[in-house]
Design a protein that fits this description.
With 302 residues, the protein is α/β, with parallel strands linked by helices. The chain folds into three domains: 3-27 and 212-301, Cobalt-precorrin-4 Transmethylase, domain 1; 29-111, Rossmann fold (3-Layer(aba) Sandwich), CATH 3.40.50; 114-206, 3-Layer(aba) Sandwich (Cobalt-precorrin-4 Transmethylase, domain 1), CATH 3.40.1010.20. The protein contains ten helices and 13 strands. The chain has a five-stranded mixed beta sheet with strand order 1-2-13-11-12, with helices on both faces. Strands 4-3-5-6 form a four-stranded parallel beta sheet. The chain has a four-stranded parallel beta sheet with strand order 8-7-9-10, with helices on both faces. It starts with 5 loop residues before the first helix and ends with a helix.
Length: 302
Amino acid sequence: MSTQNLNSRNLIHHPEFSIEINNQSGFCFGVVNAIKKAEENLSTDEKLYCIGSIVHNSQEVSRLSEKGLEIINIAQVKNLANKNILFRAHGEPPESYDILKQSDNKLIDATCPVVLKIQQRIKAAYINSKKNDGQIALLGKKNHAEVIGLIGQTDNNAILIETENDLKKLDFSKPIELFSQTTKSLAEFQNIKKRIEIQAKNSFKANDTICRQVSNRQTHLKEFSKKFDAVFFVGDLKSSNSKVLYQECKRANENSFFIVSPSDINAATLKNATSIGICGATSTPQWLMEDVAKAIEQLKLS
């Protein structure tokens, strides 16, 4: 099979080797929606301003930048007028909406519906917690775009938990309600939940807000990686999801390699590989994985 059939079946077959692109890798729904809205806007306007990187993948950001997407921070909105401003899938805190309302710009809100629902749940939980001097805890990564938006729902009073060590920030004599960043691993959430349960002296409620479209990929990629002589995980160093999913591949197959672009492929790793798997994160574009497959084919044939 030639590379011309790559899009239809995600496979390249050759008498001496095979290459397969994982069919569950690539953009999640939220990212697909955000990029679709960006492209629709750029098809009629020369410029679109996005608050923060639209996706944690430098290759895709470069592609959209060439079409007219410009990355800015929320403070820069005050210097713009009559422009289209995109809120990416990660979501924004309430103050971002306030700033935009005070400007003469138009909002294109691409917040992921899953993230938006969690924002609403955290806000409601925070309002309720003030009645009994409770605490809102959030398992997440500091300064992550989604986390900033979630903590913003609590007037920035939620207690961020990155590791078990951060549990010392909690007052276990008071009520605690736990939430999670959508892209955290289920195992990590369950561990933090268990640690709080052990120490809690008052009421404790754990809300599993991990996106299953993301978490289910961990088990799937583990099984996928076992099938091949070599696995190339296509991701971005700025992507938390890339790091989590790559580790699943590496645990399942020690011949798993993290690459950002086709130029990162080490030909030596392909020497004895007759079956090669390609996969990626929720922020990895399909076209990039296809480029990697074509590059591997060319290296194998050279």
